[in-house]
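This part of the workshop introduces the protein records we will be handling. Getting from the letters to the tokens is the skill we practise here. The record below serves as our worked example for the rest of this section.

…
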Amino acid sequence: MRFGLLILLGFLGSLACGLVPLALAGGGRPVLPASTSADAPLAFTALALSADGQYLAAGTYEGNVLIWSQELVASYDSRGTVLGLAFSPDGKYLYSVSASGEVYCFDLVTKQKLLLFEAFSYPRIVTPVESVPERVRLQIPAGQVIAAFSAQADLVAIGAQDGVVRVWDLATAQFLGQLALEGLVHWKNLTCLAFNPRERHLLALCFEGNVWLWDVKTHRARKLLLDLPAAAAAFAPDGRRLLLATRGGDLGLVDLEKEEASFVLSMGEAVVGIQFVSDGEHVVIATPETIAVVSLAARRVAHAWTGSAPLALSADGKSLAHASLDRRSILLKPVSLD
């Protein structure tokens, strides 16, 4: 079934970065191009849709954050690649986190941004965690950084190459604690972070495929006993299930109470993005060149088309935003589950 695109009207407007206006791709399909110049293209790295569907936000490799509502309504810069975006449930604020550790709050009414904190220069409070050695590395991280916001946009987790995942409360900018499992050989190679939408639990994956759950409140961590080397993951809306993807593209659905995984299907290539649809029975999967809607019950791909991560689903699961293959454009599509 062919997917149509939601039409966005208006123009991006005049910005200091010189963004071009809306254009039509082949076949007359509207997209959102973002190009500062032929020599300095913007590459999209993060997307978010507000709960009411009024706003679309995009972050770039260069550190730009752009916000649309029929037309470009605001933009701001951060230091480092934008790793994640999240709207507050009431749609009044947009939060962003960058590879430098900066976390911003942008007021969509006043169009003002506030630097909440800098993760890697924030005073570090060593919080004991079960299974964590007394020795905790506190040097400023370097290299790969990953991040995740909670579903309610009240928490943010940032993991870096020092082997520590740090969690903050966004409302108070309070440091809540850290997860540091230094005994693992590959723990420094973090690949994925995700919050449970129903509980204050944080999932962390490392390169060797181990899956850890950390209780943000009690600071207790436990390793899930799964024979599934996971590289990407996402919680189901009910918080009781977890979809894991291996580096080879196999998908497994995990019952968290039983700690049992059942094979769903193989995508045949690496999975770079997972988003659950609101019904909890379908997921949107991104591979390097394909976007697919997967039915978990039928264990099959319902629809697939050309595209790339990042992904963003509307709260009702009816609209999907994703990047083009070159990550220089954003496409909006209605989600069909048939």
